Amino acid sequence: MRLLVTGGCGFIGTNFVYMMLRKHPDMVIVNLDKLTYAGNRFNLLPIENEFGGTRYHFVHGDIANAELVAHIITEHKIDAVVNFAAESHVDRSIADCNPFILTNVLGTQVLLDTARRLGLPKFVHVSTDEVYGTLGPTGKFTEETPLAPNSPYSASKASADMLCRAFFETYDFPVTITRCSNNYGPFQFPEKLIPLMIMKASRGESLPVYGDGMNVRDWIYVTDHCRGVELTLLKGKPGQAYNFGGNAEKPNIEVVKTILSALGQPETLINYVKDRPGHDRRYAMDYSMAARELGFEPEYTFERGIAETLEWYKSNEAWMEQVQSGSYRTFMDKWYGERQ
What single string gives the DSSP state of each residue in 140-202? Predict the structure, then answer.
């Protein structure tokens, strides 16, 4: 199979490229990435060294460029698209939602249009549990839960999901959608909760925690999510959305305290800051359809996953320093400063 993977230099895309090339010796991947602040070509340097020019090809470009997307699909004889490309940080979407609309909505539309026009037989769109909105203290999101996004980010992803549904219903285009809970693991950009807390705790810095810290997330280790996307690509039914979760519901404050304990740092570093607008209280995923139709089950417990994540960041301090050399610290320091 010859895949066009978009956003392959981001966190989840990077892990997916590693997994697929090493698991499927007959697979060829073309990685189209715009290399925005969270896209890091350095992530895949070992892949470029091992497979570059044969089974792996990198293209620097925008998914909203229809001419470029068409050229890649025809030049590389692409069989399927897996769309990871997205602006994904809620805080940034609150500050400025324009890039989220351009990439997450317009970019997805260009990919769908181009892939349909060229007759691709498979298209997997990677979405998020945030399109469902928020849950009360009980229950879980199913694939039948109505979409009710509460942030500009989740609204842009829900819009993309609706485009995918429309392309299946209107054109019978074979698109499937994946929606997963909160990812964590290697290569995650340090603006998200777990790598941000690891970075700050390792330096003995104050750890900003929104509100009362009791917002609950279902955590899934990134490798488990990548297996879910793989199963969707290989077995998923056109027109279907599949939920993926990690069976690991935890309040944010518990995650933060786990990291502090593992790093031998005191809980006095925790700094509760003003909650962000539209902050969803709880997510939880019912992935029984994916278990039944695709054979999906998460392999990582949170305890195993967080231990491996902490070890990866400890062993990759140079990576942390490299990604922080961009605009990340300026934006995040300003944002959290305003929440004080």
Answer: -B-TTSPP---SHHHHHHHHHHHHHHHHHHHH---EEEEEE-EEESTT--TTSHHHHHHHHHH
Q: Taking the domains of the chain in order of start, what are their residue ranges? A: 2-188+220-247+282-300
pLDDT digit string (tens) for 17-73? 999 999 999 999 999 999 998 899 999 999 999 999 999 999 999 999 999 999 999
Contact 240, 164 (CB under 8 A): no
And the tokens for 163? Answer: 């485009």
* 3-state secondary structure at position 87: coil
**Whether the Cβ atoms of residue 11 and residue 188 lie closer than 8 Å to each other:** yes
Distance in angstroms (rounded) separating the CA atoms of residues 187 and 199: 13
Kindly report the average pLDDT of the chain as a whole number. 95
Strands (E), 127-264: 175-180, 182-184, 207-210, 216-221, 241-244, 249-251
Cβ 87 vs Cβ 121: under 8 Å: no
Residue that the structure tokens 């970075």 belong to: 199
- Which residues neighbour 270 within 8 Å (Cβ) at sequence distance 6 or greater? 206, 207, 209, 213, 253, 256, 257, 260
Catalogue the active-site residues.
Answer: 129-130, 153
Which CATH fold would you assign to the domain 2-188+220-247+282-300? Rossmann fold (3.40.50)
**3-state class of 338 per DSSP?**
helix
